[in-house]
From TrEMBL:
It is a multi-pass membrane protein. The chain crosses the membrane at residues 24-41, 75-93, 113-132, 144-164, 232-253. This is Lactose permease. One of its GO terms (molecular function) is lactose:proton symporter activity. GO terms for cellular component: plasma membrane. The gene is lacY_1.
């Protein structure tokens, strides 16, 4: 949450500086990075291990255990959702600021308003984060992921139908209602469907790596799509793809809420 507040302040400052001197944005970011280094350097961390961790020892996770995830159908279905919905949406969002500026008289004015809007959206993220765990527990991890998929699909398609600064700004704010929920839902889904010893591995490979790696190829294809058919038509295609994968995930994702104990993969 505090990271979101920091991002909101940084985005607000960047939006103001864009119309003054764009180089100042990089100086400000560099100064913030130096401050972070000083804070981390001065931070005092206790070297004593927690006594609670000494009472029981869990068997270490091996490379063989991690590779065994590739044999689990649930893992591939989860990765399919992340790639078909999450990666497509993230690639769309990377170029959204350029499209947003088209609704204003100048790029500088568009960037300034986009900075204000992003600041408000990030504060909305922080507010939603308070309720996200309760919301995900209420409807279940699977339904929460489907909810996020619908919001993302709606935002992509809605961007193609925006007719002015107000409508495109409201569509941008939809991001605040799904980003925090998506993070909590993904973590809840992982802990409910995979061995807890492998939860970090599932998150890194099934969520972070699969989304980032697929974005490499999606960025190239979507970039060519923008040039050939324009933003509006591209958003309809991308929104349709995300919606299709959301509907597929309605069938493929597991609705478990609590992990049922299974034998740990043999070392």
């Amino acid at each position: 949450m505090f990271g979101g507040i920091g991002a909101a302040i940084g985005t607000f400052a960047a939006g103001k500086l864009y119309g003054i001197d764009q180089n100042m944005i990089f100086w400000l970011a560099s100064g913030a990075g130096v401050c972070l280094l000083v804070i981390v350097w001065k931070m005092q961390i206790s070297a004593h291990p927690q006594q609670g961790l000494l009472s029981g020892k869990a068997s270490p996770v091996t490379l063989r255990d991690a590779v065994s995830l590739l044999k689990i159908k649930k893992f591939w279905f989860f990765a399919l959702y992340v790639i078909g919905v999450g990666a497509v949406y993230e690639t769309y969002d990377q170029q959204f600021a350029i499209y947003y500026s088209h609704f204003f008289e100048s790029k500088a004015r568009g960037a300034e308003v986009f900075g204000y809007l992003t600041t408000g959206q990030i504060f909305l993220d922080a507010i939603v984060m308070f309720f996200a765990p309760w919301f995900v527990n209420k409807i279940g991890p699977k339904n929460a992921l489907l909810y996020c998929g619908l919001i993302m699909s709606l935002r992509i398609i809605g961007s193609a139908w925006a007719i002015g600064p107000v409508s495109i700004s409201l569509i941008k704010l939809l991001h605040g209602f799904e980003s925090s929920v998506l993070l909590v839902a993904a973590l809840k889904y992982i802990t409910a469907n995979f061995n807890p010893l492998l939860s970090a591995t599932v998150y890194l490979i099934g969520f972070q790596f699969s989304k980032s790696f697929s974005s490499i190829f999606l960025s190239t294809g979507i970039g060519h799509m923008y040039q050939s058919i324009g933003f509006t038509s591209s958003y309809i295609v991308l929104g349709g793809i995300a919606l299709c994968f959301t509907l597929i995930s309605f069938i493929t994702l597991d609705k478990a809420r609590v992990f049922s104990s299974q034998p740990v993969p043999a070392n």
